[in-house]
Amino acid sequence: MKTTRLDISLVGYEVGLSGAVPDRHDWTEPAMDRGILEFVALITSLVVKYGGRIIHGAHPTFTPVILGHARQHSVGRNSKPVTLVMSELWSKGYSTDELNLLSETAEIVVTPQVGPGGPEETDTRNRSLRRMRYTLIQQMNVMVAVGGKLHAADGKVPGVVEEMDLARQRGLPCFLVGGLGGMAADYAKGLDASAALKNDLSREQNDQLFDTDDVATTVSVIFDKLAFGQSLLRRKLTDLSLSEEAVDVGEIDEIDDDLKEPPLELS
Known about the structure:
Helices cover 41% and strands 12% of the residues. The protein is an alpha/beta fold.
C-alpha cells in the first residue's frame, strides 16, 4: 500500500500525552477503550512520522501503544522518539531486561519515590506521582490529554487533573480531548477553553475536541494546529520547581505561580 507524506515538519515538538484507559466501571459506553487507544496510536504515529517526539508518564495502558507505533515511524532518526518518565515507586519493580527493552525506543527518566511502602500506600503513591509529574511536564512543550482514570472514591489523585493543572501553570498549549470520555471529559466541563488552554484553536474547534467521539476528527484538529501553528513552539514557558515541602503539602500551586526546577538526569 502506498503512503503519502506531507511536506510539513513537527521537529521541535515535544508532545506530552496525558491519560489512561478509565477503569471499566467508569466506562460510559461499550468498548470505550478502543477509541482512546486508537487516538493514542494515531497521534503518536503522526507526531513521530513528521519528526516530533512523544512524552508520557509510563502508564501501562498507554505505554505499549505509544512505543509500538513510535517504533514503526522512527527509522533513521538520530534521537529516540519517546521519553518515558516514571517514579521509582514503579521502576524498582522492573527488571534490568525490561528497562533495557523500553530504552530501545524511549529515553527513560526515573524520579525519586516520596514516602514509605509501595504503590498500595495511597499517600506515598500521590506524593511520588506528584514528584514525577513536575519532571514530566518540564519535558513537554505541548500537552494533549485524553481519557484518564477518575479515582472518584479511592483517595488517589487523578493524573489528568494534576498534569493538566501543572501544564497550565507552565503555560503549555493544551489540547483536551473530552469527547472520548474519562477524566478529560470531566475536566472539560465548564472550562473556558480559549483562556485556559492557550492552544490558539477557535472556540468551535475546542468545543469539537470536548464533544466529538470521532477519533479522526480530533486527531485532525490537533495535527493541523501543530503542523501549521509553529508559533506554539515560540511560547515562553515557565520553569516548574519542586521542593520537598511542596510534595509533603500535596497541593498544586496556583496556576499563575512562577516555579523553577531543572529536570532530572536520564537514567
